[in-house]
Amino acid sequence: MQGKKTDETVSVNCTDIDCPVHGNLKLRGRTFKGHVISKHEKRIAIEFERMIYLRKYERYGKTKTKLHARLPKCMDKEVNVGDLVRIKECRPLSKIIHFTFLEKVNGSEEGKK
Ligand SMILES: [Zn+2]
Fold first, then answer.
1. Given pLDDT bands bounded at 50, 70 and 90, which one contains residue 10?
2. Which residue has the higher pLDDT, 68 or 20?
3. How far is the CA of 69 from the centre of ligand 1 (A)?
4. How many helical (H) and strand (E) elements, i.e. helices and strands, does the chain have?
5. Hey, what CATH topology would domain 28-107 get?
6. Which of 2, 4, 74, 93 could be bridged to 97 by S-S, CB 3.0 to 4.6 A?
């Protein structure tokens, strides 16, 4: 019992230790933005397009990248399939999950950053 954080008023009962807000999960590394293509318990898969250089044709082409991200229980209701979300890198939580859900991007904000 360490009196480190006592001023937190959490409305949601979140006991997820891998939650970036309520748990002790540290975020570092890269941030990605993409559309949610599938949603599972505690996990979402996002997909986004990126440009890569094709050496064979000496030009750039589009390719799709799919990433799995941890979805904390307290934010479970916020996210639906098709939403534009932002994810941030964290320590590997499982074999395929190295990212965690950060925030939902509004439609008006799209293309701003
Ligand atoms: Zn939480």
1. very low
2. 68
3. 15
4. 0, 5
5. OB fold (Dihydrolipoamide Acetyltransferase, E2P) (2.40.50)
6. 93
